[in-house]
Design a protein that fits this description.
Largest sheet: 5 strands, mixed
Oligomer: single chain
Radius of gyration: 24 Å
Number of domains: 2
Number of strands: 5
Distance between the termini: 80 Å
Strand content: under 5%
Length: 509
């Protein structure tokens, strides 16, 4: 069956009732999952989740509030989306300020993948398979219930995918405009969006009836506005338009010269990424998606799905060339790091799974249920979150940080007075402020340079904060310990098994 503009589904892909059922189901699903995570305190296990919230909060609650708090490395869309919610103290403390916009993006992603599947396969049960395989994955649900950017990006990707398919079917300019807007959204969310720009232009140009080169250049130019705006922001903040690549807080600077599996090794990079994708997606859905891709190729429906393979290719390239390692527990060094990048495999496998219903033309409903149950079988057989790779990563990598945050917050709740000020290197210690209900404007950290630089360089001379929090060996700890005569005294230590101890200092003069 073709996707021509004359087909009935090109005019009305899904009925209002059908679409409302999809939106309501996705909303109910993510709402229950958020409540479950909130009850168990899992929302802020990722250190990056806490950091995203504090960047958003810093836009109005900082010693120097304003858009300078957005920084130059992390792209701004999640921080801006969370801004209306992070102004509520309870939503900030619990992490729900970031959860709400991310959960909305999950609903948007699922809905537009459903519509894209309806356009491609032109059968409602194929679309049901796609959205269920996508939305019932617990790793995706976890990433969609916490302040992280993966589901935000997937929302833009789904809208873009839908726009590409609808433009190919109708040649209507509104879908071209929708695609450009989706590209901007992706480019302000993750750098994956920058990588996709020329491919987006190719997909739109191939669907144009004439002047394809002109269409390609037009889309490239329009979509590139977002990256150029961010580079201008980097130049304004640091006088280096490429600060996000080579600045002190870039992935390259964080990784340094330490080697890792996949660095300048294409087969190894592909292998590590595939394992991460398989752990996020589950073997059954990987197999189902692979079979579906072959069926789609036979029925000449594979070309649109190639678009969903581009993001996994970007991560393989990043692993190989951009000092962005991925560690998985089944491969050396047998640890967890950046496993969430594998979630891009889920989008591809879930979408191609819908093609399998082409071989069950008269039993679509029963085949759909069978495929859905099979795709989620790993999570049904092992329902514990210990088997959700991204939850496990956040739990394992936050043991010390959670201990530091809880212990320091308990101490400060009884000793801190408004206006005292706290000197610290933000990083892993930023969550203490939300936990202890202390405004971020009380903090002196690397983002408040007029106060931070002299306080670190000469704490014996310039010591505006009554309190200092440090990790043994960090820049604050070293500065205070070398100060003679001492200006601060150590009043509390929190020791953890595998990481530096946390130190709380009080000013004595």
């Amino acid at each position: 069956m073709t996707n021509s503009a004359d087909s009935p589904l090109s005019k009305s892909i899904a009925s209002t009732r059908e679409l409302a059922a999809v939106v309501a189901s996705l909303t109910a699903l993510i709402s229950v999952f958020v409540f479950w995570l909130l009850e168990r305190g899992y929302i802020l296990y990722y250190g990056d989740a806490q950091a995203h919230l504090n960047i958003s909060r810093g836009l109005f609650d900082a010693r120097s509030p304003g858009f300078d708090q957005l920084g130059t490395v992390w792209l701004p869309s999640l921080h801006l989306l969370a801004l209306p919610f992070v102004q509520n103290n309870w939503l900030w403390e619990t992490g729900l300020a970031g959860t709400i916009p991310v959960a909305v993006c999950f609903v948007v992603a699922g809905t537009f993948f459903y519509l894209a599947a309806r356009q491609t396969y032109q059968h409602p049960w194929s679309a049901v398979v796609v959205v269920c395989c996508f939305a019932l994955n617990p790793t995706l649900l976890y990433l969609s219930a916490i302040p992280m950017t993966e589901s935000v990006f997937l929302a833009g990707l789904a809208v873009m995918f839908f726009a590409i398919l609808r433009f190919a079917a109708t040649r209507q300019r509104r879908f071209l405009l929708l695609g450009v807007c989706a590209s901007w959204f992706m480019s302000f969310t993750r750098y994956d969006g920058w990588f996709l720009i020329p491919f987006i232009a190719i997909f739109f140009a191939r669907s144009a009836t004439q002047h394809r080169w002109r269409m390609f250049l037009l889309v490239c130019a329009a979509a590139s506005v977002a990256p150029l705006c961010w580079m201008a922001n980097c130049w304004w903040e640091t006088s280096n338009a490429l600060d996000f690549i080579n600045g002190p807080y870039s992935a390259s600077a964080i990784q340094g010269d330490r080697p890792y599996p996949g660095w300048h090794n294409w087969p190894q990079a592909a292998h590590y990424y595939f394992v991460a994708g398989r752990l996020c997606t589950g073997w059954p859905l990987v197999i189902i998606g692979g079979l579906g891709a072959m069926i789609a190729a036979v029925h000449k429906r594979m070309r649109p799905a190639f678009f969903l393979l581009l993001t996994p290719l970007f991560y393989v390239w990043s692993l190989h060339s951009s000092k962005t390692p991925i560690h998985v527990p089944t491969l050396w060094p047998f640890s967890y790091y950046n496993t969430r990048y594998g979630i891009a495999v889920l989008a591809f496998c879930a979408f191609t799974a819908g093609a399998l219903l082409d071989i069950f033309p008269t039993r679509g409903k029963h085949a759909a249920f069978a495929l859905i149950i099979l795709s989620v079988s790993p999570w049904l057989l092992h329902p514990s979150p210990d088997h959700w790779i991204c939850w496990k990563e956040s739990e394992q990598n936050s043991i010390s940080r959670r201990a530091w945050t809880a212990g320091a917050a308990r101490f400060l709740e009884t000793h801190y007075q408004t206006g005292d000020g706290i000197l610290l290197h933000f990083g892993d210690l930023a969550g203490i402020f939300g936990k202890a209900r202390i405004p971020l404007r009380e903090a002196i950290h690397e983002g408040t340079k007029p106060d931070w630089l002299p306080a670190i360089a000469a704490p014996g001379v310039f010591h505006p904060a009554k309190w200092a929090i440090a990790l043994d060996g960090d820049v604050v700890s070293k500065a205070l310990k070398k100060c003679q005569p001492p200006v601060y005294k150590l009043v509390l230590e929190i020791t953890t098994k595998d990481d530096p101890k946390l130190e709380i200092y009080q000013r004595i003069r």
